[in-house]
Design brief:
This protein has 17 helices and 53 strands. The chain is an alpha+beta fold. It has 3 domains: 43-395, glycosyl hydrolase (family 31) (Immunoglobulin-like, Sandwich), CATH 2.60.40; 403-739, Alpha-Beta Barrel (TIM Barrel); 742-975, Golgi alpha-mannosidase II (Immunoglobulin-like), CATH 2.60.40.1180. The longest helix is centred in the middle third of the chain and has 16 residues, at 636-651. The radius of gyration is 29 Å and the shape is globular. Its EC number is 3.2.1.20. Pathway: Glycan metabolism; N-glycan metabolism. It is an enzyme of class 3 (hydrolase).
């Protein structure tokens, strides 16, 4: 959110207030780059990039890192050793403990630490209270499983080659070749190298060294240059660094860690969100169409972010996957500090001596983090699904949300009174527009004090909640990590007295500036802070909240208005005396986690799945809720970029993602607003949101024909909620993205590897390409295979790999159905998803070239955790052309609550079956035979009516079976011929 300031309390506050307030009237422009560092302005990035440049210019280069062969040991799937770093001309040796762990999943983990820091054998400057070790607790927050060590990994040494080899993975098909001098690792699958560590010799761990105080120059003398004879390195930012008026004291001196990771034969790499950029990552060393800056991961509150940029945004997931035809591999760089990633590509040839051999592209990456240990997971695929699943096994799969959370959310900054909220709620009903959630931004509070209600504008929160509850709707209220520093506010008094705030470098409570003015930040790295935080959300503590109140966590990067780069100083201290520089990118996750825990424990005996939206995130945040792409603009370009941004979140393990529909800043045209709603229909997280200075734009505001077209888009989302919920279940159990790019669905289609403006919904075969261009009346949809694709609305058929033009007037969403799928939906319009609970289902059977189709449907109660005890229905539907029958079989996991849930759902039926691409032989067919498990049929069996509609021109034939009277939770069979 952009900010207005409260009443100032000092002349400094007056200046800050004036600066912020005047910016409210500044025209919408690009981000203020001067507020955020470039690589050149980040000392550790500049040093390591310069090092890479120097190495590239040398005709021969040998990395000074060597694995001591005598130190290598191997036991129970884990290799240990010591890397020796030789320092410049001095010849000093630095010992770096190495561990390579081979996991049962086929993933390998490489960690490198620094012995002196590990043992605490260093001296901190400035009498700092910071920890002496390199930060080694990122896994505590990010990793939840998948660490079972392989019992089948086997070691072999090659003394002559100077290497150690370990075979591991499924059937021993993976191999790690560890070169001793210089140190490097090649990771192979089926005998071919797919990932290389330190191929270019850019491994660099900036070891601890005491600062040598240089004599001060006499008057009139020039100061000596900031270099050392031993290394020739630039020391100007080793010991302190100033940016934006803030000086980072760096009590541990230089401690960056860097490594080059190469992907031989891979042209496309994806991941490392969050950036407003293309799905296939661009090169970063300059040139036509390339970036000149590395991709940056440093969670920040970026105002009016620019597009097509490697600039950092609100979240960081340091997962990269490389893809080519027949193979996908990935690396997960587990480091929570500021990180920069360079990407370069080079053309080569698999066999330069073979005439006619096509050249291949190698992708080389350079990872640079400011602090922490080197901790990298290597996943060898071979498919995109393998990467997302293995990564999910490590960091957790996305949380299974409540049903309402995947429906439509209505938000703005701000609904100004409780009467305003109730009026908006009534108008949605008046215009027959479905929605599930209405949101409150910061203005609902009493003077920006969280866990309070403004007594003048929200005097009756109970009445407001009760009205929403009548339609089974919810309310989401914002709670941020900054706590107002003011008198007579029990929350801040408790936080101070219990010592639960983030500390400054002196160890005192850190005070900064955010929405409330002077603020303190709760330190959610502290278990005591999490425990205290959970007490604030209980109904008797936060009065005026109820079972239909849920939470929005914003500003948790953390955003500090008067801090460097709008965040905390890096030498602040967190629980355990870790510096903020070590944990910055995890900070948002810890706050999100604390709120998740608080929502689980709101009331004893009332266990409901939390819904908590976060802006800042890290690897593992997917376990806790949803994210959105932050403060976008009401511009067509921002609508367009939202699709690759959401797709990238999905393949990077955090699929519950969306963008502010309509754009946060500015006033969209009615056409843009309409097209954005049509696009938002295909975001996993679907919320309309707007800035406080924008005009009202609820779906009923634009008027005819826009309101009706937007309503149609919303009804489509609600109609397809069964398909969406099933996709969420797949994500929650396998790590698969909820919306998927072409390369994920068609991993062997090289022509589609860079396509990022269309998407598939789960495993449903639904393919959407939203209109994101002003005035467009058609789109060109890319089809990757020879299966028939049918228009969702009129069954127009498109066949053949390549681009096909699909007409898309304003009232039309380009949406196709790939042959071979069964798509579940609910066709009865309701005011909210909760009112659909007992509605019957429609199954759309979309036949492929061979006349077959299959699909799944997952149902649970949509709110509790009882699905973990089997309270769910999970069915597989198969249409077999040979038998000409559609059948339903159980694929669910049984548990103690399976039977009870099945009984509760016994009367929920399939009311209609639609077969698209129906065979011409069905013309004249009047009835189908129906059989159902547990139902004794009368003589002659049960029959249901079927209507056949023949093909018309390019529109496929289709057939409809009406009310076959089969229960959705039972096994059954519908025989067509």
């Amino acid at each position: 959110m952009f900010f207005t300031m409260p009443q100032p309390r000092s002349w400094t506050d007056v200046f800050l207030s004036f600066t912020a307030l005047t910016s409210l009237f500044t025209p919408v422009v690009m981000v203020k780059h001067e507020n955020f560092k470039t690589c050149t302005q980040a000392g550790f990035c500049k040093r390591n990039r310069a090092f890479a440049d120097d190495v590239a210019q040398l005709t021969s280069w040998t990395s000074p890192y060597n694995l001591d062969p005598s130190s290598v040991s191997f036991k129970d799937g884990q290799l240990s050793g010591t890397i020796l770093k030789t320092v410049g001309k001095s010849g000093e040796t630095v010992r770096l403990p190495l561990t390579v762990t081979f996991l049962e999943s086929g993933t390998a983990r490489v960690t490198v630490d620094e012995e002196k820091r590990q043992k605490g054998d260093i001296t901190l400057r400035h009498d700092s209270k910071a920890r002496k070790e390199r930060y080694n607790e990122a896994s505590k927050w990010a990793i939840v499983g998948g660490l079972e060590i392989s019992t089948g990994a086997a070691l072999s040494r090659d003394t002559e080659a100077g290497s150690t080899r370990v075979n591991y993975g499924p059937a021993g098909t993976h191999e790690a070749v560890i070169t001793h001098s210089p140190f490097g690792i090649n990771f192979k699958r089926d005998g071919e190298t797919h990932i290389k560590f330190n191929e270019r010799g850019l491994l660099n761990m900036e070891h601890w060294r005491a600062k040598v105080e240089k004599p001060q120059p006499k008057e009139g003398e020039e100061p000596p240059p900031e270099t050392t004879e031993e290394t020739g390195e630039d020391e100007s930012t080793w010991w302190e660094e100033t940016f934006g008026g803030n000086t980072d004291t760096k009590p541990k001196g230089p401690e960056a860690v860097a490594l080059d990771i190469s992907f031989p034969g891979y042209e496309h790499v994806y991941g490392i969100p969050e950036h407003a950029s293309s799905l296939s990552l661009k090169e970063t060393r300059g040139g036509d169409g390339k970036y000149s800056e590395p991709y940056r991961l440093y969670n920040a509150d970026v105002f009016e972010y620019e597009l097509d940029s490697p600039m950092t945004l609100y979240g960081a997931i340091p997962l990269m996957q490389a893809h080519r035809k027949g193979s996908t591999v990935g690396v997960f760089w587990l480091n929570a500090a500021e990180t920069w990633i360079d990407i370069v590509k080079s053309k080569g040839s698999k066999n330069p001596l073979s005439l006619g051999t096509k050249s291949v592209t190698d992708t080389q990456t350079h990872w640079i983090s400011e602090s922490g240990i080197l901790d990298v997971f290597v996943m060898l695929g071979p498919t995109p699904k393998d990467i997302t699943q293995k990564y999910g096994e490590l960091t957790g799969f996305t949380a299974m949300p409540q049903q309402f959370a995947i429906a439509y959310h209505q938000c703005r900054w701000n609904y100004v009174t409780d009467e305003d909220v109730m009026d908006v709620d009534r108008k949605f009903d008046k215009f027959k527009i479905p929605y599930d959630v209405i949101w409150l931004d910061i203005e609902y509070t009493d003077g920006k004090k969280y866990f309070t209600w403004d007594p003048l504008t929200f005097p009756n929160p109970k009445k407001m909640h009760n009205q929403l509850d009548k339609r089974d709707r919810k309310l989401v209220a914002i709670i941020d990590p900054h706590i107002k520093n003011t008198d007579k506010y029990p929350v801040i008094d408790e936080m101070k007295s219990k010592g639960l705030a983030v500390k400054n470098k002196e160890g005192n409570d850190y005070e900064g500036w955010c929405w409330p003015g002077s603020s303190y930040w709760v330190d959610c790295f502290n278990p005591a802070a999490i425990k205290w935080w959970t007490t604030l959300f209980k109904y008797d503590s936060w009065k005026g909240t109820f079972a239909n109140t849920f939470i929005w966590n914003d500003m948790n990067e953390p955003s500090v208005f008067n801090g460097p780069e709008t965040t905390m100083p890096k030498d602040n201290l967190h629980y355990g005396n870790w510096e903020h520089r070590d944990v910055h990118n995890i900070n948002g996750l810890t706050f999100h986690n604390a709120t998740f825990e608080a929502m689980v424990e709101r009331k004893k005996g009332e266990v409901r799945r939390p819904f908590v939206l976060t802006r800042s995130f890290y690897a593992g945040s997917q376990r806790l809720g949803a994210m959105w792409t932050g403060d976008n603009l009401a511009e067509w370009s921002h609508l367009a970029i939202s699709i690759p941004m959401v797709l990238n979140q999905g393949i990077s393990g955090f699929p519950f993602a969306g963008a502010d529909v309509g754009g946060f800043f500015g006033n969209p045209s009615k056409e843009l607003l309409t097209r954005w709603y049509q696009t938002g229909t295909f975001y996993p997280f679907f919320r309309g949101h707007a800035h406080i200075d924008t005009r009202r734009r609820e779906p009923y505001v634009p008027g005819a024909p826009y309101t009706e077209i937007i309503s149609q888009a919303l009804r489509l989302r609600y109609q397809l909620l069964p398909a969406w919920y099933t996709a969420f279940h797949e994500a929650a159990t396998t790590g698969a993205p909820i919306v998927r790019p072409n390369f994920y669905v068609h991993p062997d289609d090289a022509a589609g590897f860079a396509i990022d403006d269309q998407l598939y919904v789960g495993s449903t075969g639904l393919l959407a390409k939203p209109v994101v261009t002003e005035g467009a009346n058609s789109v060109d949809i890319y089809l990757a295979d020879a299966e028939p694709y049918y228009d969702y609305f009129d069954y127009t058929t498109y066949t053949g790999a390549g681009y096909h033009t699909v007409q898309a007037p304003l009232d039309k969403i380009p949406l196709l159905m790939q042959g071979g799928h069964v798509i579940p939906r609910r066709d009865r319009p309701r005011r909210s998803s909760g009112l659909m609970k007992w509605d019957p289902f429609t199954l759309v059977v979309v036949l492929d070239r061979a006349g077959n189709a299959e699909g799944t449907l997952y149902i649970d109660d949509g709110e509790t955790f009882e699905f973990e005890q089997g309270a769910a229905i999970h069915r597989k539907f198969v249409f077999d052309h040979e038998t000409s029958a559609l059948s339903s079989t159980d694929i669910g996991t049984q548990g103690p609550k399976t039977a009870a849930f099945a009984k509760a759902m016994a009367k929920v039926r399939v009311e209609k079956v639609v077969v698209v691409g129906a065979p011409a032989a069905w013309e004249g067919l009047a009835e189908v035979a129906v059989s159902e498990e547990g139902v004794k049929e009368s003589k002659g069996g049960r029959r249901a009516k079927v209507t056949f509609y023949p093909a018309q021109g390019v529109k496929a034939a289709w057939a409809v079976v009406r009310d076959p009277k089969v229960a959705v939770g039972k096994g059954w069979r519908i025989q067509f011929a």
